[in-house]
Amino acid sequence: MGQMRIALIGLGSIGSFLAKSFPEHNFTAFDADLPKAKQTIERMGLANVELVESMQSPKLSQASLAIECASQEAVPLLLHFLKHASIMIMSVGALTDARLAEKLESEAKKHGHRIFIPSGAVGGLDVLQACEPQEVVLETRKSPESLGRKDAKETMVFEGPAREACAKFPKNVNVAATLSLAGIGFDRTRVRIISDPECKTNRHTVRIKGKAGNYTLAFENFPFAENPKTSALAAYSAVSIIKRMDSTTQIG
Description:
Blueprint: E1 5-9, H1 13-21, E2 26-30, H2 34-44, E3 49-52, E4 65-68, E5 86-89, H3 98-111, E6 115-116, H4 125-130, E7 133-142, E8 155-161, H5 162-168, H6 174-182, E9 190-195, E10 202-210, E11 213-221, E12 223-224, E13 227-231, H7 232-244
Parallel strand pairs: 1-2, 1-4, 2-3, 4-5, 5-6, 7-9
Antiparallel strand pairs: 7-10, 8-9, 10-11, 12-13
Helix pairs in contact: 5-6
């Protein structure tokens, strides 16, 4: 892969991790918290990152890939890029908004670009897409701290459809959104979220019933060092996509 220019919307824990992972690429970043973003660049020594003060900066339009790594509210900003770049969405829960999802898809097709959605904190999406799923249940187990709670004992904090889970826990259940998009949709995918004081890792169990078979997939992820609400694997899955963008052979 040759040198790329990549636009980042958000220079928090994931955005800065991506920039650090690819010192050979040039990054242009916009972050709503400009002083904090400047501190991040200095603290991490990100010489390959140029910070801009506005989404209207012409430097952003020079990117061939734009990555949202800020929040669900930032995802609509990616429409700005699709005329000249492919995009990657980290806050996948934003795609519960069907109109937004349709607009992004339409613009990507119109201009011949792609939309990348990392697998995030789980795997097995190839199985989910291939097995003609009839039922999908996700159980997520995290520490109370990562859920913004102070439970002293194991507590079921949510049980219901993925659409509702994404709305109530936008920073915790991107996994539910990714599974919904790959499988049977936001309304049929069921989600359970458990707050567990004994839990030191982010755990996801996915149970799938499909025409090709029944599957149980279990994942125990280390929390991301700078943001325990996020699994480290979510950031690494984005790195993996960037590494494979120009691959001739696609596996899975």
